[in-house]
## 1
Amino acid sequence: MKQVRVLFEPDGVVVEGQAGELLLDLALTAGLPLLSECGGQGTCGSCRVQVQSGRVRFLNRSGLEEQIAAPQEVLACQTAAAGDLVVHVPPETRLCPPDERITGYMGPEAAAFLRPGRTGFALGERTPVQLSPPSFDDPTPDWERLLEGLRQARYGRRNITANLDVLREIPPQLRALDFSVSATLVDEGCHHRLIALGQPEQEEALGLAVDIGTSNVKAELVQLRTGRVLAGAAQLNAQVRYGEDVISRIIWAQEHERGADELQDAVTSTVNSLIEELLQETGASQDQIIAVSCAGNATMISFRLGIPADAIRRAPHIAPVGLPPMISGAILGLQVHPQAAVFCLPAINGYVGGDITGGILATGLFEADSLTLLIDVGTNGEIVIGSKDWMVCCSCSAGPAFEGVGIECGLPARPGAIESLAYDPDQDRTTVRTIGDDPPVGLCGNGLVETLASLLDARVIDRVGNLVPDFPSPRMREANGEPQFVLLWREDTATAKDLVLRQGEIDNLLRAKAAVFAAVSTLLEELGLDIAQIDRLYLAGAFGSHLDVRTAVEIGLLPDLPAERVTVAGNTALVGAYITLLSSEAREQVSSLARATTYVDLSTASHFMEEFVAAQMLPHTDLERFPSLVSSEQGRAGGSSSNT
Amino acid sequence: MELELPIEQWSDSVSTVVLGATSEDGGTRTSTVTLGGAATLPFLDFEGEAPNPPVLAMEVLDTEPEGWPEPLAAPFGDVLGDPAAWAARCVEEFDADLICLKLIGADPLRRDASPDECAETVRKVLDAIGVPLIIWGCGDYDKDNEVIPVCSQVAAGERCLLGTAREDNYRTIAASALADGHLVIGESPLDISIQKQVNILLTEQGVPGDRIVMYQVTGAVGYGVEYAYSILERTRLAALTGDTMLGMPMVSIVGSEAWKAKEAWMEEPAWGSLERRGILWEAATAELFLLAGTDMVIFWHPEALKHTRWLAKDLSKS
Amino acid sequence: MALTAVEIYKFLPKTNCGDCGVATCLAFAMKLAQKQAALDECPHVTEEAKQELEGSAAPPMATVTVGRGERELKIGGETVLFRHDETFHNPCGLAVTLDTSLPDEQIQQRIEQLEAARYDRVGFMLGVDLIALQDGGDGRLAQGARLAGEHSSLPLVLMSTDAGAMKAALEVCADGRPLLCGATTDNIEAMLPLAKEYNCPLVLTADSLESLVPLSETAAEAGSDQLFLDTGAQEIGRIQSDQTIIRRMALNKKFRPLGFPTLVACSAADPTQQMLQACSAIAKYAGIVVVDVADDEYLLPLVTARMNIYTDPQKPIQVEPGIYPVGEPDEDSPVLITTNFSLTYYLVEGDTMASKVPAHILAVDTNGTSVMTAWAAGDLTAEVIAEHIEKFDIADKVSHKTLVLPGGVAVLQGKLEEEAGWEVKVGPRESSAIAQFFREQGWAAK
């Protein structure tokens, strides 16, 4: 078979495949699942892409091969590669619009779950059923008649159950609708549950993928039939007022009457407010949401479900529930269909939760052939190392600095957030780039990384992050006894206030990056591995995909790996929630990978504290661990370490 | 039978640091002290060279010590209130290689002595001795930043050792040392990474490696000596394996540390002679640090120094 | 080179069956790599894997038992040259000599003195481990052994080169598994059978490292593996070299003839110098140190240094939970709360002592974790502190009702006041600020 290379634009992803492979499949391999409402029959036209150049073969034109000269629209399910290609994928064809503020990277292994015909069952589905009315010859009862119809239509030998209130509706509904109905079922793992019966041409069934982060909650509204993402939204977790990290919240919950209830209410209100926002944007109704998939750390999931989370903070730090049984939406106070199924991605441990199993699923780490490292920087940092053979994980308390929490000028990634910042000491001038090119409001994770690197380069801070008191600029000043540096003067900001970075905030950023680096180093050491053996690194969490990997290495947030081995993966937790919303195979996969992943408790790993201290320098105390920086630094350092 | 000795091939050695400047070098010291230079783990001369024997210093306080136990105070007679006379006695009678003057009186929580007063003490002590001098601040960052520059100036050209520089106050001390031709002690709280960080910061501030001496907060036998012991061992190993940012000589304080231990001073018949106990405690502590790799030990009790001098000789025999 | 967890994993069944008691095969491999588990805990491991993983795992240094019963000593079995690489496992034994040519009465006195040399250190008893009976060549070694057996349960070292005297003494005390010290080039042919007959460990003594090797080979041919090595070094420099060479030959070169613990007999005439000899041998790398000095002021630093050097650097060391006086506190003195992590406790103790304000320190049992770690893990709570206040009768020690809480856990203040019924002041976050805190609060130095 002839090898072909396909470049997908505007993502710039190149995949290799064989001549004869469908563009629909090649796009999946590239991690770009396309809409395919008819399941690849070539009838719906939803998988329309533009071939810019190259040679293709058209299935629906009796296998005609054609050299594309001018850009041409084709159906991805009916077009195969016949040579190297350049293909443009328009946003409306994509299952997941590339909204990097909310969601993240999906590896080909994960996208494969969405391949037409492979998904198994979505968490919730609406299926049209055409039944023959009863007769003396066919006296099957209504319920069994409906079951038989469902089995023939879609569910084969699956067990199907229903609540009494739905059962009561069946006889009148069947007759009212002339035995032609649409049945709404949710997949509860061991069986399906019929939750509603309606007209065949009912509205689309929707699902909600949610990432409940300690600091930020993000959600996407998804069309369950097609997988299409209709809208996404993000909000600060209302629990933040009870403490910045999970430990303080667990303690708070314990020490206040109704504390746990209050925390549960807080996160419920955040999710409901996101739902409202999404419904408003799409014009859909609450009852349309029949399935919810939640990724979140074990504490967030416990709070969400109202389960006491105290076990998490006490050794051996287990999660109260790994994989919660399916729960219906109404019980949890969510503004969705009252019997909507709520699936929570499983936790590995009290400190490594469903956000991480979601990340393992999304990046495809569980099927990787070579050693892969997943770093998720949120309020906690979680690390996974492994491949298809084995997986190990750990967590560290990084603090929410890179999420913009606890940093006055910090901001989640949203319009007006500074993504890129460079300070020029000669001109005493700062140049910034913001999301949406809006006037600058504050700094998001990417911006904070670049700021640290730029201030270090300009010698505004020294290598332990101390602001240099005699730095010759009016930007260096003190307030309330604490040194601070003015990044932007008030006339250049949207807030009409000086944008400053305080010493304590720099210290927090250093601690956060040191905790992450130390966790990676310690885990590698426990396994007896060297960082150079890592073939691929996914950085998930607080950083947007524009993060400059070299800059992240320069400040020692990431280990010194060549940039081409690093993927800035964004919110892989939400991608995990999204995939499990759509695929029962993925739900089974995520449960088994959670059981197979080994948790390492860093508090029992003797070297973690040492690694942590050593990492509290920019980039690191041991420069030998950053060979690429040392070689690029030579000649620039000005004889700084040449005494022997 | 011939044993093939298991010799480690080290790639580097501890850097050599010279304290004190004689008239030839623009100072007024009558002798100098050379620290470091070892190309082997401590006292393994089958393996490599250690050209400079351990340096034994004595500590002098700028403020008359209160509540010193009798066995400790006795040898000094009436000089404890006079830093210059105290220093002179340490050199002339007690065989100290150099003097460490601790300016504890500058501490705002003690006498809050002014920078000028401290500088005056430094000048008097320098006049009273010919050996090199260590000028050690009171430990209060802000106050040390005021005191050390003034003291540094009155000692300009003497190649003194100024201490201590930590992550938060290294700039002032480094600048003084560079301006007045002194050396710097980089201090860290029993942490090898922080020690290295301080050294890197000092180096980036322009202090060359042969002008830095490392000090790890020490502790004594029974009081955390094992932490310091392992940190010193690891630091020496790092130096020998080529980590130049940990390749400087090390100094350990044993006098004030050992005498903090209640075993050194507390009346307790079951522990044996109170006369001897403090001395033995100090000597044992010094020995452990030397075995772990320190290059200079700072004593309180002259007899502990005397025994350590014997030890250093005995250690060179094999 | 030890295998890494990932290398070990390759030989395991990879089924994650959990039959070994650990959730996954990789977790089990990690435990094996850290020597926290044994391969036979996995019921499904293949023969091939066993060979691969255990084949080269014979310990490079023998572990030798001296004495029997409660006070027996396991010595040797060390695996590293530097304690920071793992830990030193079996503390060096401290033996003090007893001259058996002395009259019975004096022998008895000396035994009583050695038995009494025991020192309490925050909950641990330290002391002399062995009595070394020195044969004066007058046929009284056996009598010494008899008296030692009557008045002490300490294990014995029989120091004689006379096989006849040794045999006579063994007739008396062989049940206690004494250490025979020992065999030289001249008497090894007589000593080896004795050691074998009475099943006792034996010291090989030579005047140099080189001449030890053939002795050890002779012993090996006779099937002895319960051996100690003694190079006779007295100069501390030579003690250091000899001990280091033996340890390196054993561990790095797997040189069997030197794969045994060592014995260093210190005999400097000046007691301080002898203590320094012994202290150097304890640090590097003696299995047993023999000294003549028996006065407490010499033994105390030795046993304390020994405890320090043999402390596991990977484990947080703890002090016994309880209330400790600093200075000479009275009923008006402040009560400081801290945890029983020894580093935390000693920092607080040191800084309190330096403040010259007498005080009581309450070391709360947090399983040896620091204040902030204990708080995060729920081990340092208002309830736990209140229990300690009750348990250690703090109310009887002071006439006031004020506690000082570490600044890092200021959040516990309200709850603690409620739980304990004491007024709670929030102290500094760092112990170095204790002196200043006392001054601000009006607690005076004494």
## 2
Amino acid sequence: MAIQYWRRRDRYYRLVGSRCKDCGDEFFPPVYKCKGCGSEHVADKEMPRTGRIVTYTQLHEPLPGFEAQAPLYLAVVKLDNGARVLTQIVDSPDDSVRTGAKVEATVRRMRVDGESGQIIYGYKFVVRS
Amino acid sequence: MHLMQSKNRAAILGYGAYVPYYRLPTTEIARVWKGGGSGPNVEKAVAAADEDTVTMAIEAARQAMKMAGTESVGAVFVGTESKPYAVKPTSTIVAQALGQHHTLAADLEFACKAGTEAMQVITGLVGSGMIEAGIAIGMDTAQGRPGDDLEYTAASGGAAYVIGRKDRSAVALIDCSTSYVSDTGDFWRRAHERYPRHLSRFTGEPAYFHHIESSVKTLFEETGHKPSDFKYAVFHQPNPRFPVEVATRLGFTMEQIKTGLLNPMIGNTYAGSSPIGLAAVLDEARPGDKILMASFGSGAGSDAFCIEVLEGITRTRGVNPTVKSMLERSTKIDYSTYSKFRDKLQK
């Protein structure tokens, strides 16, 4: 199993990021040190599961393991707390995938890990009109 | 007495359903395998290439916990016959995604009635006082062998229920239930086999009808209830015909079953079938309404429930997407896309 994936599973399943205890800034992915005030007093924080598309593209030649999902949308999503996430957009009509569209997080299969066959799950987003 | 009733009253505190976005018209299956025509249902719900029982269970469970307003549960039970792993629980992945660690977690298996079995077990755990609340999920990505009759109906979807002690915010009281089982070989899948097999003429009379009629009649005999006491009835839905037929035999009307009858639109979601029918009913039910739900699982058995809707149902409106909205938010796919999504192509 990908050890890195196992260690990060709360990030992938629940969008667990960081919140600075001193200035209140929130970050995703998690940080050890606040990027705003430099404080090391940061704690785990579940991010909001909704946001808006900032920018997007459509891939017709995706990475190995994603062939069955081609063509697929990749987008930068700004969560409701301002944190940004690079993510796949799924289950959404082509004309709904646009800058500014409201999206909501979902958990999906990302890929199957090599010969071990372990399934890697993670977050993707769906357009919510 | 065969009636199961918890001493501490247990109730549904929240529920959530999940129906995938994609629909395969059965005319597509008939076109490929028969040269035309259609199946008994209009369409079936198809999980996307990146969906499985784990991902769908997480979505339904999240909704159920949101509606219940609970942050911790003492049990996460997933009833399914389409576990992504033969060995490795579906339920621990779901529990991790829900942020639950101090909890029982198990996958229950009983073909199409594993979801209602999870509801009964959690009702018992809550009723005994062992746990405050638990989540029961019935979810499947059912598979039919290409070209087999089952392929028309084998579909994806299901529902989750947070069951806890009855309080003023509770959605519906799980008043009592009965179960009836026997060794009946109507449908099975041996280890390492990809698709289930069925004995066509055994699936009806000695399996579906005998077991559902037995569980429901026992419930009637031991509670004194009769069909007219119920505003709604939900029966397991392997196809559009069987639930209508069993309802008629037991004395229910079309008016009582139409709200929860989803097979024509989404097919048979196996362990999710009766739980998602119940969710569709709860979306429309009012306080005081009584609901009869009877599942059926091959192999074989049936659980029959008497459920009474409580005042708390009024606070649930708008909290989660309704089953009806999930049926509407969909897009049609052809047989080729379905084959790609459900991994039916050899590369």
